[in-house]
Specification:
This protein is mainly alpha-helical. Helices cover 67% and strands 0% of the residues. The protein has one domain. The protein is built from 8 helices and no strands. The chain is globular. The protein starts with 17 loop residues before the first helix and ends with a helix.
Length: 251
């Protein structure tokens, strides 16, 4: 007979099932979060255009419009972070670790570069297929066009957005909040597919819908395997760093 007071074996890492048990929100909170996200996006865009008009900025000019959109992306990213925290830590009493902020075990550090390689491979394969089917019109387009980055201030802002805010906020919202909550109702594949598609949709560029959906699924798999959001935050950072450097090099 085993005593209730017998020492239990210690585990060096969170198992794939452990992190799911800590998720205390579900589809209801996710629907609310998505609605709030859309409302925040619309409000921020209206305010951004209004402020630009007051400052005499011609938003009909493509470059100016892209620069205004870049500036507006900062408060939008921050709002997504607030929404995710409010509907989990705030209203449900969850802990930050429930959103995935757990230490990444050293023996699983390899998952981060593997996720980056997987994401880049998806883009490479998609670009090959797109070129064969429809040419350049189907190729993923960067939101940071060359003309947008013609001033140092916008280069710095784009860098902060791509390398700091996007990895932290988008992984918290799309992987920690959306994917985590969806796993309470759906299988891994369905949860990863839905959260991946919404992740792609949030980028606002139709040509990235397909590849970024699969990139989102790769990141979801990485999070599910390690139980730590730091896996995908660091992978997202490296992925964006490569894209950012390539964009600057092609200006």
């Amino acid at each position: 007979m085993t005593s209730d007071f017998e020492p239990q074996p210690e585990h060096s890492q969170t198992t794939s099932d452990d992190w799911r048990r800590e998720v205390v929100w579900g589809p209801r909170e996710i629907i609310i979060g998505l609605v709030l996200g859309v409302v925040a996006l619309l409000c921020i865009e209206v305010v951004a255009v209004a402020v630009a008009s007051l400052l005499g900025i011609d938003v009909k000019n493509t470059t100016h419009a892209d620069q205004v959109a870049l500036v507006a992306s900062v408060p939008f990213e921050l709002m997504l972070f607030v929404i995710a925290l409010s509907l989990t830590v705030g209203s449900r009493g969850a802990k930050l670790r429930s959103l995935g902020f757990r230490p990444l075990p050293l023996n699983l550090v390899w998952v981060t570069p593997a996720a980056v390689v997987g994401a880049l491979s998806i883009l490479f394969v998609y670009e090959g297929i797109a070129n064969a089917i429809g040419g350049s019109r189907l190729l993923p387009q960067s939101n940071l066009k060359g003309d947008v980055l013609n001033q140092t201030a916008f280069v710095v802002m784009a860098g902060v957005l791509a390398l700091v805010l996007a990895p932290l906020v988008e992984e918290t919202f799309f992987r920690g909040f959306l994917f985590g909550g969806l796993t309470r109702r759906f299988s891994f594949v369905i949860a990863a597919l839905i959260s991946g598609f919404l992740f792609a949709l949030a980028h606002g560029e139709p040509t990235v819908f397909i590849p970024f959906t699969f990139v989102g699924m790769v990141f979801a798999a990485s999070y599910a395997y390690t139980g730590s959001l730091w896996t995908t935050i660091s992978a997202h950072f490296l992925f964006n760093l490569i894209s950012f450097i390539a964009t600057l090099a092609n200006r």
